[in-house]
Write a structure and sequence with these properties.
Layout (H helix, E strand, L loop, with lengths): L2 H24 L3 E10 L2 E9 L3 H9 L4 E11 L7 E15 L4 E7 L6 E3 L2 H9 L1 E8 L8 E12 L5 H9 L4 E3 L3 E6 L3
Antiparallel strand pairs: 1-2, 2-7, 3-4, 3-8, 4-5, 5-6, 8-9, 8-10
Length: 192
């Protein structure tokens, strides 16, 4: 085996390992257990956010860089011969901060009349912010019985960066300041 072949193999191996890290990071965030139900005349959904890069987020929080968890929700009526019709687009936003004086993590429910919740660990804060239960989407009487629908949910975690140099360096270290998931989908039909 020549010297160049050995060198080429080492470079290829390094490249594949490097690429594997990027792919793993890109697919790290996932929505699990997406389920639909009905409650008090509304279509409701629930899910859990999993595979969160806790260590990276905790490092950033301890350096004063909070983050926002933004869920994008779309409900479409599936139409056979025409394009699908979007019935609902909605966003659910949670913000997570670290209070170094009290050594607590704070979860803000943006747009809701709830006070922020303080918890002692980032895992608890992520469970509060990322696990959604019985979120009302729309009244059941707005959906047609016997028609097919698709609910899609995805999540993006954004790091909230101030204009200072230190936060720009942190944003560079944490891949541009955002982590995304793929769409989680569920197809359903209201019974006749």
């Amino acid at each position: 085996m020549s010297k160049n072949t050995g060198k080429a193999r080492k470079i290829l191996l390094f490249f594949l390992l490097f690429l594997g890290l990027f792919v793993r990071e890109a697919l790290a965030l996932e929505i699990h257990n997406l389920v639909l139900g009905t409650q008090q005349g509304y279509l409701v959904c629930s899910w859990q956010l999993e595979d969160i890069p806790v260590q990276k987020l905790d490092e950033a929080l301890h350096h004063g860089v909070p983050f926002e968890i933004r869920f994008y929700i779309e409900l479409e009526r599936i139409r056979r011969f025409r394009g699908d019709k979007t019935i609902l687009r909605h966003e659910v936003v949670r913000e997570v901060y670290y209070n170094a004086v009290k050594n607590l993590y704070q979860v803000y429910f943006v747009g809701l009349p709830y006070p922020p919740r303080n918890v002692p660990s980032l895992e608890e804060a992520l469970a509060l912010a990322g696990n959604v239960k019985s979120l009302p989407l729309l009244p059941l009487n707005t959906l047609q019985r016997g028609k097919s629908y698709r609910l899609k949910v995805r999540v993006v975690i954004y790091q909230k960066v101030s204009p200072g140099l230190a936060s720009r360096v942190l944003r560079f270290l944490f891949r541009g300041g955002k982590i995304e998931s793929d769409w989680a989908r569920i197809r359903f039909k209201l019974p006749d």
